[in-house]
Amino acid sequence: xxxxxxxxIIVIGCPGSGKSTFARKLxxxxxxxxxxxxxxxxxPDRTTAPREEFDAALADIIAKDxxxxxGNYLRTLPLRLSACEAVFFFDxxxxxxxxxxxxxxxxxxxxLPWTEKELDPEFRQYIIDFPKDQxxxxxxxxxxxCGTGSSGSPSLIAFTARDQADEFIRALRxxxxxx
Length: 179
Prior knowledge:
Elements: E1 8-13, H1 19-30, E2 34-36, H2 37-41, H3 51-62, E3 67-70, H4 77-83, E4 86-90, H5 94-103, H6 121-133, H7 135-146, E5 155-159, H8 162-173
Parallel strand pairs: 1-3, 1-4, 2-3, 4-5
Helix pairs in contact: 1-8, 4-7, 5-6
């Protein structure tokens, strides 16, 4: 499938891996609408949306004909995997993820409703624990959803380095990218 044929795409990976930056570049290259799960879940006052509200907003997005959805939210990953046509998985080394999360402190971002003033200790620990707590589940879900290779299963593109993601965007813009 040519990238421009995929109209329902998810971007997942550890916080700080570069997935939101990639999702913005993918949006710009394809014209597909981009939705950030963090913007559905978090409010500007740092409270969170109730589960029912989050689920309803996600269901509304998934019902659309075209989308890029950025974010992990493991609880809803099976739903998104069953609805998407392509998955971009950022499997970036932990140290690079920690550096990525730290580098955006003080930056206004479209994927978060506030500007981080510091790397929150709980969030830092979440990133540290991600390879142990989240990655095994994500890998199993990806294997179940994408591993069949059947015509109904989503395509999987995994990046182990940010420069691979940048190269994909360059290839996409030049018409060389395939999924």
